[in-house]
Specification:
rod-shaped; disordered N terminus
Length: 196
């Protein structure tokens, strides 16, 4: 009597990684893996590859979710291995880390009355950028560009001017002091006579 035993051939479980594909440095981002495995013994292993962003895994790396923090702009691939007995499914997910927002510095200026001044900055990072200009801590209405033009200056225009640049990956600020020289005062003799 012969008996035939059939061995079950199991296909590897699926492993689909999801999460944000574009992130900012120094932020914790959560990624998850989904699988078609319903086996209660399913295990997970997370790893990083092609890591030019200095990324590190945070928290447990043996569950269906993992946290990742990138230290700089660059990219990395996040891999999730789903293990069911001896079957293994591998999922990979590419992530781009965009640069943080930075801004060129403003420069202190000293000017004469009735002159014009342009304060200007150059932002860097991930566009688009928003600009908020202030004078002595008060928001300047309508000043929403990378340059601030001040025309026909008077003494009350002097002060501390700052701009906050807000981009996709944070914000950056820079300030400068504008000094308006006092108008010259000419003093002559008290009794000035003119002869023709």
């Amino acid at each position: 009597d012969r008996s035939v035993q059939a061995q079950a051939i199991s296909s590897p479980p699926t492993s689909v990684v999801t999460g944000p594909s574009v992130i900012c440095p120094a932020t914790t981002n959560t990624f998850s893996v989904t699988t078609d495995s319903t086996d209660p013994t399913t295990t997970y292993q997370w790893s990083l590859a092609n890591n030019t962003a200095g990324a590190i895994l945070t928290g447990p790396t043996n569950g269906p979710m993992v946290g990742v923090v990138a230290n700089s702009a660059g990219s990395y691939s996040l891999e999730a291995i789903v293990l069911v007995a001896s079957a293994k499914g591998i999922g990979s997910f590419s992530v781009n880390v965009t640069p943080p927002t930075t801004v060129s510095p403003l420069v202190d200026q000293t000017v004469c009355p009735r002159s014009d001044v342009t304060l200007s900055v150059t932002p860097a990072g991930t566009a688009s950028f928003a600009f908020i200009w202030t004078k002595d801590g008060h928001v300047l209405a309508g000043a929403t560009n990378s340059s601030l033009v001040l025309a026909n200056l008077v003494a009350t225009d002097a002060g501390r001017y700052c701009v906050e640049v807000i981009g996709a990956c944070g914000s950056a600020s820079t300030c400068a002091t504008l000094t308006v020289e006092p108008a010259p005062v000419l003093i002559g003799p008290a009794n000035l006579t003119r002869e023709c």
